[in-house]
Design a protein that fits this description.
- It is globular, with a radius of gyration of 18 Å.
- It has 3 helices and 2 strands.
- It is an alpha+beta fold and 130 residues long.
- The chain has one domain (2-95).
- The chain has helices at residues 2-9, 20-23, 26-37; strands at residues 55-61, 67-73.
- It has a two-stranded antiparallel ribbon with strand order 1-2.
Amino acid sequence: RMTIDKDRHLGDPAYVDVPVARLLSRDYCSGLAAEIKAGLRARIERVDDRSPRDTTHISVVDREGNAVALTHTLGSPSGAITDGLGFMYNGTMSRFDPRPGRAGSLAPGVMCRAQTTGDPFRQSGCGAMP
């Protein structure tokens, strides 16, 4: 469900107005929790439905409330090498949404979104990030 919101709203903050208050509101989060508890599957729309095989993420919380989030990624190098430089460029252009008019769409001067890790956080006496 977070992935759906990320795809809908994550982009260069100079160009995208993210509804942070709504996304973090108790009502919105309670609705998402109810969907998860009911076993409803989230439908994540993708331009390319093939699952990437270069990144793995896990989040774990134990009964004492200790939490850890771990992301391991190889990225996706493009294979292009400029003579004399000796390194490959990465494939981060693929992080832009190729469809115009969306939060993460490719446009002149826009930074690409980056998601390198999941950050565990909790609120209201349930724990907190340091």
